[in-house]
Amino acid sequence: MSESRYVRKGFGNTAEIRPLLEGDYRSRVVEWLVDHDRRLEADGVTIRLAREFGFCYGVDRAVEYAYETRKRFPDRRIFITGEIIHNPRVNRRLEEMRIHRLPEGAGPEERLRGLTPEDVVLIPAFGIERDALDRLKNLGATLVDTTCGSVLNVWKSVGRYARDGYTAVVHGKHAHEETRATCSQVRERGGAYLVVRDLEQAERVGAMIEGRLDAEEFLREFAPVSSPGFDPDRDLRAVGLANQTTMLSSESLEIADRLRRSMIRRYGEERLAEHFRSFDTICSATQDRQDAVHEMLEERLDLLVVIGGYNSSNTGHLLEIGSRSTRSYHIAGANDLLSRRWLRHKPIGDPDPVVTADWLAEGPAVIGVTAGASTPNSEVGRTILRLLELRGVPEATLAERFGATERI
Ligand code: SF4
Q1: Which amino acids are annotated catalytic?
Q2: Looking at the domain that runs over 58-147, which CATH code has it been given?
Q3: Tell me, which fold does domain 24-56+285-402 have in CATH?
Q4: What is the pLDDT of residue 122?
Q5: Which residue, 305, 334, 397, 401, has fewest beta-carbon neighbours within 10 Å?
């Protein structure tokens, strides 16, 4: 394949697409807050914006490359292998730009049927599975690979584990695109993997390592989330920890610690290095957003609004952190603030959103706002305006603060 058919660094036409990106995703409200200590007080309500929130470097780059690609190939068919990021507004915008998703749920053959070498295919920030990438390369279509550098680092770690005979234990969600892609990297190198969702599952892996669980029982739970032919007696002798980059970092650390202790019990401290390795592969953007919620919670907060796609893993984790200390809601955007009385939001662990009454208290209130790594500033700004509007802040006050206000 010639160099120009596999693009990893964009097309160098950033200046041309910059006004488009700013028109779609910039927010005067957010910029005002950033310039004013991330705090706004109006008519008894205080809005506090997290120190780090919204688009991370990987998402920023992926979205930018999608716009660059459309500019570079105005007349070509452009596809993307899955959601570029987990944000409905951004995905709708790409559809409007005629960047279409390849069919989901279909087998690999079916997904790629109809693609020609004239087509352009974008690979999202989470990456894709190795065999899908190979098929796309063989097809000869132009590939624009936006896989984030932090995801590539995880792949390097699990690649080393496979090379050295350690089973990759991945703290992640088995069905998530990034975790599927990470597991495919292990498969490609002939290694074994096991995906662990949470601390509870890690407890059972630990029990298996320590010989307190029967292999059959173990496989009933873990066979669907481990490499083909996984043999717990053989494949849990040496493990290397990694994680989906967007998991709750404190939980990843606990899981690593849990399995490290099991290895010590089984093999002794002096032989730990032969049986256990760990690299924290949570990306810095995820970590910064989680830390910023912890910081916000050091001061009084009556309510925390977390904005992000309902299927966004990192947004869900920001909600988990907030919920430990204050009333917290995960919304997809301003449209979920249905009225002063009703709110649509997605509770922790629920597959679908629900509608809750009496979510917005009367009287003085401090409301925290943050957003997952795939939420554009425009959505954050619209949400803040809607919050203020529902709390009865007059439009004239908003117009005075922000100039002509954004469309809610
Ligand atoms: S969350 Fe982290 S790994 Fe994922 S795209 Fe953003 S920067 Fe990259």
Answers
A1: 178
A2: 3.40.50.11270
A3: Cobalt-precorrin-4 Transmethylase; domain 1 (3.40.1010)
A4: 96
A5: 397
